[in-house]
TrEMBL record:
Any one GO MF annotation of this record: acyltransferase activity, transferring groups other than amino-acyl groups
Keyword Transferase tagged: yes
Organism superkingdom: Bacteria
Limits of the N-acetyltransferase domain: 23-195
Keyword list, A-Z: Transferase
Name of this chain's protein: Putative GNAT superfamily acetyltransferase
Length: 288
């Protein structure tokens, strides 16, 4: 039998990851739905009231202009949401501004299902990549972005949002990694097809530039050891979010150490090629 295959919709393409997470994902535009998104983000970040990650008015404007807002539902409860808008270059890129998932659903792969839906939506609209930023100190986010999704950092942005006085960032600066998710890169396609990629394997000869001490503090190797190495590991704290509450001074030391090492490497043209299960960025110098 021959013929043209039936065209798959975005909901069809997102069905498998959503089924694994036991949720339903749909695009949102109604005002009541956008108010739910605002309330969810407020519960996740507990921001200063004068500076929420997004307002209902902002969401309304974005959806009216044809941008992306989607929600993940467990029954009637909104448990995750993702917001993105078209970016430069026009017709090729989307910037994913904010995504959040309720802590109650952690471990159910809701975040992966949301990003898969966003990727399908972007491809349906002729886009080639999605960019977003994340805090390089948050180990679980780094693993999710670089290992599971196979996105790759392109820039280290110092204090990108200024001081953020919320429950997660704790007023300790807002350095961010800008990542690019090239939607049809073979590694991305494979990761999405199998429900997520894997952590990076450490090759022989790699140099550990930054590690975590038994007491939880950052330990940086001398710059002369790692600055010209071909492959470098840059470690992260086990749980920076908890550390900001229990030991803010050590948390500040981590911010400074990762900025000094990872920021310098990326600024000098090195590229991050992955993230290990044990919590380290794998960095390769392009000129080595």
């Amino acid at each position: 039998m021959t013929g043209v295959p039936e065209r798959r919709t975005i909901d069809d393409m997102a069905a498998q990851p959503a089924a694994v997470a036991q949720i339903v994902i749909r695009e949102l535009s109604a005002l009541a739905d956008l108010e739910e998104v605002y309330a969810l983000f407020d519960r996740i970040w507990k921001p200063d009231r004068s500076n929420p990650p997004v307002t209902v008015e902002h969401l309304r404007a974005l959806t009216h202009a044809g941008n992306y807002v989607a929600g993940a539902y467990d029954g009637d409860e909104l448990v995750g949401a993702c917001v993105g808008f078209f970016a430069a270059p026009p017709g090729r890129s989307m910037h994913s501004h904010v995504a959040g998932v309720s802590a109650a659903t952690r471990g159910r792969h809701v975040g992966f299902a949301l990003k898969s839906h966003q990727r399908d939506w972007a491809l349906e609209h002729g886009l080639a990549e999605i960019t977003w930023t994340f805090d390089p100190l948050v180990r679980r986010n780094a693993y999710f972005n670089l290992a599971k999704l196979q996105a790759r950092p392109s820039d280290y942005l110092v204090d990108f949002y200024g001081d953020m006085d919320d429950a997660i960032n704790g007023g300790q600066g807002s350095d961010r990694l800008l990542v690019r998710w090239r939607l049809e890169d073979p590694a991305v396609v494979a990761a999405c097809a199998r429900g997520g990629g894997a952590g990076a394997v450490v090759a022989p000869g790699v140099v550990a530039a930054l590690t975590e001490s038994p007491s939880g503090r950052p330990v940086a190797a001398p710059r002369s050891v790692w600055a010209r190495a071909g492959r470098v590991l840059v470690g992260t704290p086990s749980d920076i979010e908890a550390l900001r509450g229990t030991d803010p001074e050590t948390a500040r030391l981590w911010r400074s150490a990762v900025r000094d090492v990872l920021g310098e490497l990326i600024g000098g043209g090195a590229r991050v090629t992955g993230f290990t299960r044990s919590g380290s960025y794998v960095v390769e110098r392009t000129d080595a």
